[in-house]
Amino acid sequence: MSNNDTIISAIHPGLWLVATPIGNLEDLSPRAAGVLRAATIICCEDTRHSGSLLKRIGATPERLVVANEHTEHDAIQTVLDSLSTGAIVAVISDAGTPAISDPGERLVRAAIDAGYTVHSTPGPVAFVMAAAMSGLPTARIAFDGFLPRSGAERRERLTEVARERRTTVLYEAPHRLVRTLIDLAEVCGADRQIVLAREMTKLHEDMWRGTAADAVVHAQTVEPRGEYALVIGPAVFETIDITDDEIVSELSKRLASGFTKRDAIDEVTAALGLPRKRVYALATEK
Known about the structure:
The chain is of the alpha/beta class. Helices cover about 45% and strands about 15% of the residues. The protein folds into 3 domains: about 5-125, Cobalt-precorrin-4 Transmethylase, domain 1, CATH 3.40.1010.10; about 125-230, Methyltransferase, Cobalt-precorrin-4 Transmethylase, Domain 2 (2-Layer Sandwich); about 245-285, no CATH class. The protein has helices spanning about 5-10, 30-40, 45-55, 70-85, 105-115, 125-135, 150-160, 175-190, 210-220, 245-255, 260-270, 275-285; strands spanning about 15-20, 40-45, 65, 90, 120, 140-145, 165-170, 195-200, 205-210, 230. Strands 3-2-4-1-5 form a 5-stranded parallel sheet, sandwiched between helices. The model has no long low-confidence stretch (mean pLDDT about 90).
């Protein structure tokens, strides 16, 4: 029996989450390749993108099913029908581990709810690699994916990042990088440490390190290419006695500049490192 036959024989029916390389194709594990060769159906974000990888490893599934952010829900019944026959169904994303800030989460939930087994072949996850190489504290990490593009939800998430005591990792598209860095510098403070990771595992891998303010300048002077992972250092609050009058003054400044009461409360809570209940009580006093 060949090594490949040994790999194939260990693959059981069910839904398989298969991690694919985030850049360097040599990072695809032999077990992942074995699952993809054995799969009857492979769900992917883009058939053209994934087709080149599958061709490289000699994987010829009976069917490729598009399961991206727009079509994942529609693919659920097809996947469940196939699983009901005892098939091996693989899920891959364009890069990295599916279901982590990528399609796959709803397929996993549907398969579990229907009583099918979910397996995985571990592999690259961009935010983990970015955090590990950042040089920032990694004992506790918060992953927040992509920020909302606008509105109160974006402001709320930014405020959460600002007061997060764990190292935080975000993803961002190149054309939105500068705007997000400007927002982060505003809410987190100009001196907050940030690492910009891009092209990881590729020929032009780049890790830029510096303050939030310097990150804005850097991003404005280079041509952003490829998706970025932003690693943001944890918030460090000094113990300072802050009076109620000072809190009310900070709230008034933000309300006068157009913030909603909720956003003003969140901003002051993050900026001063205070319990939200205390700021909320002062903001709602009559």
